[in-house]
Recover the amino acids of this structure.
């Protein structure tokens, strides 16, 4: 199924449903349906840090949204507070876990009348949503397909160095990093970081692609393999990355030092240490990891799968995807052939 008709008109019915997070932040959901009414339940898609819900809708022949609709799912794309659809803010994973995702789930339940739903979660949408689930804040979610990282963030050595030593230095100059500085670099901090990136990254001529690699991982590039992206997607992504707060990087630094997710804000609804607290969810997890991921290493998801399987054997699943990295699991030109069938199979299991 094509994402666009030949005239450029969407073949889908779409509506934006605003909702207010429990601390008052205005967010939204995008509900996408085909011409035929869905005969399966709702599925929520949760994006990563410094992007937006449209990251699941790259200009490829078939997106994950297309694949889900064709299989009869009612698709809901969440823009949480880490979305670049909203003004930059100093968010944490704790805030998203406590305030955003539970309210998004409740909004979908109220809109659809469904008793439960399933989830596809990626990167920091995955870590924060996993926090929600483990804290018992999204009991309506029965199946969770997690890509890249969940309970056990493990990063490459160079990323560890950047988190521990470069983030404190950069924070002296700016509260945010923004890969879009490759296109427009306002201010001294943006210009200095852009100069550094241009001096050290020569893997392509896309300035945002290079900034993404500097910001989020190790490698040239870090979040995908160039050979997995078509030219249109490589150009399109210039406008799909924006500001991400260094406050988040400080939290993920603590998590990587511990080897698993920890809270930083002291909210009573969230455990301080997510490995020490018993999970308050019966959801089945399907862990996905690109074998070539240079943002979060595949061992991240392997560790989480082993942990969950130790608690409930023969219930959860793991897929390590050869030839794939971080975001090309969804944006890759052959993802509809290579990764989407595995995701759909997991959603269809129950």
């Amino acid at each position: 199924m094509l994402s666009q008709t030949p005239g450029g008109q969407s073949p889908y019915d779409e509506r934006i449903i605003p909702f207010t997070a429990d601390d008052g932040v205005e967010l939204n959901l995008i509900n996408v349906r085909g011409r035929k009414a869905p005969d399966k339940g709702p599925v929520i898609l949760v994006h990563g840090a410094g992007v937006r819900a449209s990251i699941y809708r790259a200009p490829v022949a078939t997106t994950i949204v297309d694949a889900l609709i064709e299989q009869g799912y009612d698709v809901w794309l969440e823009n949480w507070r880490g979305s670049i659809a909203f003004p930059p803010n100093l968010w944490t994973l704790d805030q998203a876990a406590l305030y955003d995702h539970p309210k998004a789930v409740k909004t979908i339940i109220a809109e659809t009348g469904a008793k439960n739903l399933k989830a596809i979660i990626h990167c920091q949408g995955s870590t924060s949503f996993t926090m929600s689930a483990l804290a018992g804040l999204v009991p309506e979610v029965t199946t969770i397909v997690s890509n890249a990282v969940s309970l056990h963030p493990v990063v490459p050595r160079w990323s560890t160095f950047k988190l521990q030593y470069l983030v404190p230095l950069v924070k002296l100059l700016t509260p945010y990093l923004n890969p879009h500085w490759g296109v427009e670099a306002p201010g001294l901090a943006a210009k200095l970081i852009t100069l550094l990136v241009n001096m050290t990254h020569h893997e392509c001529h896309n300035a945002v692609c290079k900034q993404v690699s500097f910001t989020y991982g190790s490698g040239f590039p870090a979040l995908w393999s160039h050979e997995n992206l078509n030219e249109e997607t490589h150009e399109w992504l210039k406008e799909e990355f924006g500001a991400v707060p260094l406050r988040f990087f400080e939290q993920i630094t603590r998590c990587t030092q511990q080897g698993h997710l920890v809270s930083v804000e002291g909210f009573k609804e969230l455990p301080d240490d997510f490995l020490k607290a018993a999970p308050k969810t019966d959801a089945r997890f399907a862990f996905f990891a690109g074998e070539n991921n240079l943002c979060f290493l595949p061992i991240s998801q392997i560790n989480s799968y082993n942990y969950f399987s130790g608690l409930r054997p023969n219930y959860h699943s793991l897929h390590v995807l050869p030839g794939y990295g971080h975001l090309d699991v969804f944006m890759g030109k052959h993802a509809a052939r290579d990764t989407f069938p595995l995701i759909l199979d997991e959603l269809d299991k129950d």
User: Anything to note?
Assistant: The longest helix spans residues 93-112. The radius of gyration is 19 Å. Confidence is low (pLDDT under 50) at residues 1-7. DSSP finds twelve helices and ten strands in the chain.
